[in-house]
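This is your field. Have a critical look at the following sequence-structure pair:

***
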Amino acid sequence: MQAALKIIKEQLGKLNEEVAGVSKELTGLGERLRTSPNDSSLLSERERLIKHLTDVTAERKALEVQLGMVAVLCLGSVGAGGESWYCIGGRPWGGGVGGSSTPAVHVASVSKHPNAAAMMRALLRLKRAPEPNTVLKLGPDGRFVLHPMHDALYVRACYRTLFEAVANRTPRKYIITGTPGIGKFIVWEHKTKPGMAFCYKHKAGEVLFGSRYSFDTELSDPSSWYIADGVSPQASGLDNMARIVLITSPKRETYQELAKAGAEMLCMPLWSLDELLSCRSKMYTNVEEGLVKELYQHCGGGVRRTLQIPSEQPDKGVGELVAELQATVDSCSIAQLKAAICALDLAPEASHELLHIVASNKLRNVQLTFASQWVAEEIRKKASREDEMGLDCLVNATSGTRRGMLYEAVMHAVLAKGGSFTVAPVSLGDLERGEEQQHHLPVSKKTELFGDLKTVSGGKCLEKVYYKPSSPSFPVLDSFQCTGDIVNLFLMTVCNSKAMDAAALEDTLIKMGLQAGKTSHVFFVVPPEAYKGFKLKAAKGSWPTGPKQRLAARSKLYILKGVVARLQARAMSVQGSHPAVGVVHRRLGW
C-alpha cells in the first residue's frame, strides 16, 4: 500500500509540473495575442493549450482523489491481530428480481479504528468550542483521519450558525452545500471511501469502521447522526431515525434523493477577504498578504485558490495562479454559462469556478453571483469576441448581483470608447430630473487599473485614460476619466434608485485631489429599462451639500442611459482590426 502511495505521489508531481508548464505557455501566448489578437495560428495554439490544460487538470483531480483513498487505507490497514478491516469494490446497489433495486451483499468485518478514536479523544479534550477566527489544534496525538497531513482547522464564524441550524428538533434531514473550494469539512462517510463508513460510539469512546450497511442498528437510534460527505446517503438510511446531514458540492445527482425525502437545504457562505487574511496569518504564513488580496480579486472567496494552492506552489506568481481560471473562462461557451445560471447544479464542474453561491446570514436564501468582477469582465470580453448578439441576451438572462457585475463590465467597455450618450441632468439641491439631452464623452486610448486613488490623483490623472479601481468594492465610484477641466465619475447600477451621500462624495473628491478650477461630473449609469424611472435620493442626514462639502457642491449630477447594444455595434464595426481600447494588466504582470 505504501508503494502505491509513492507511485501516485510521483505521478501527481509530474502532472503538477505539466500544469505549471502549460499555464506558463498560456501566459506567454496571452501577451502575444494582445499585440496580434486576430492571428489565426496563435488562436489555434491557444485552443490546443486550453484543451490540454483541461485534460491534465481533470487527470490530476482524479489522482488526488485516488491519493486520498490510498492514504486512508495506509492509515488503517492493520487492525486487531493484523487483520485487514477495509473492503473495496462492488456497487452499493444491485439489480434485484424483476428489476427492483436491493442492497448489494457486502462481506466486510467491522473493526476499531485507533486513529479516528484518537481524533475524537483530542476533540473531546477541548473544554469548550473554539472561538470564531481561531485555530483548532488536535495536539501531538491527534490527526484528522482523512486529512492526515493536517492537525489544525480554522474555525469560521459561520460554523456555530450552521450547527445550530442542523441541531434543530425538526427537520431531521439536511443538505449542506456551497461553492466548491470553500471548505465544507466534516467526515464520517466520505467520497474517498465509497461504500464504507466510520461510526463513533460516544459511551465507549471508540470508532468503528466498516461497510456502510454494517451500522443499521446505530442508524435506528434517534440520537445518532448520519453524516455523508460528498456521497449520497444509502437509500435504506433515508427512512431511519438518525439525523441525516449530507455535505456536498451543488450536484443534483448527489442530493436529489435526500431532497425528495424532505431535507432542508443550507449553504456554506463564501470566505470574506478578512477571513482569508486572518486564516493566512495563522495557517498559511508562507503566502504573502498582497498575493491573497490579488487572488481574491480574481478568484473570489474560495480558500483553495487563494490560500491552499499558493501555499503548495510558492514559486508561482499571480499570472500563473490565475492562468487556470483564465483557461476555464476560455473553455466555457456563452450558451453553457447561460445554462449554468439557470441550473448550476446540473452544469459542468468548471462553471463553479466562474459562478459562486452567496448565502444569507441564516444560510438559507441563496443567489448566484460571478466569482469576481474580474471574471465578469473576462466573460464580457469573451462574449464580445465570440457572440456579440448573445451579449445583450446574457445580461438580460441574469439578475441580482450577477447582473450588476456583468452590466458593469459591459459598461466599462462602452464608456471607455466614448461618444454621445443620452443623459438626464439632476438638480444638486432637490435631486429632481431635468430635461433629457445628449452628452459627449471622450474616447479613452487605454484602461488603467489603480489600487489607491493617491497614485492617480491631481496632476497624475492623465487625459484619454479610463481609470478603474482594482478592487470591486471601491467606495463611491466604479471608474473615472479626466478631460480638460472636468473629471467624469461613473457609478453603474441595475437598481431603480441610488442614495446621494455628500460626505462620501466629498471624501472621494479630496482623495482624487480635485484641483481648483476643475469640476466633477457624476454619472449614474443605468440600463434602458431602469432609465426612465431611475431616481436619486438623499441619504439620511447627508444631502444636500453643506459648507463642509465644498468640492461636492461644485459637482454636476447626471443619469446616463447605458445601452449594451452600443458595444455590440462597435464590436462588429471593428472586426478584422485592432480594438480601440487596450487594458493595462498591471496586477497580472501582462
The first strand starts at residue 93 and ends at 95.
